[in-house]
Amino acid sequence: MLTNRTLARINNRPRTIGRLTLLTVGGGTLILSALLYAFGILPLFTVLAVLGGVLLGLLLYVTQKAKMIIYLYKGKLDDETASCFSEVQEALEVLASSEGI
């Protein structure tokens, strides 16, 4: 159901993925792995640090991407409602593609 609270969530949702966080994780992983390699600590830890950083970056990306999606309806539509929804969706796509009135 479309309520004022849902509209506020739609208007206040993040529009893009924060690249600063992802760059910080990537840079931190690179620095950590360089330090581990420079101090001669086992190369295995260097590989684990890189893999951990990649997994952390992927987790952050998926989490931020999920925050951008807001579901208005959860459930399955019946056939008649689904066809009406499809028609409205196509009409809105045509309307969105117009450049003027």
Protein described:
With 101 residues, the protein is mainly alpha-helical. It has one domain (12-97). The chain is 72% helix and 0% strand. It contains 4 helices and no strands. The protein has helices spanning 4-12, 19-38, 43-67, 79-97. The longest helix is centred in the middle third of the chain and has 25 residues, at 43-67. The two termini are 30 Å apart. The relative contact order is 0.11. The mean pLDDT is 81.
Would you summarize the structure shown here?
The chain has 101 residues and is mainly alpha-helical. The chain has one domain. Helices cover 72% and strands 0% of the residues.
Set out the fold topology.
Blueprint: H1 4-12, H2 19-38, H3 43-67, H4 79-97
Helix pairs in contact: 2-3
List keywords for this structure.
101 residues, mainly alpha
Poorly predicted ranges: none
The computed structural class is: mainly alpha
Principal-axes geometry comes out as elongated
Order of helices and strands: HHHH
Task: Report the portion of residues in β strands.
Answer: under 5%
How far is it from the N-terminal to the C-terminal residue, by CA?
30 Å
The major beta sheet can be summarized as:
none
The whole-angstrom Rg is 22 Å
Number of E-state strands:
0
Range of helix content: over 70%
As an assembly, this protein is single chain
Mean pLDDT: 81
| Total domain units | 1
Count of alpha and pi helical runs: 4
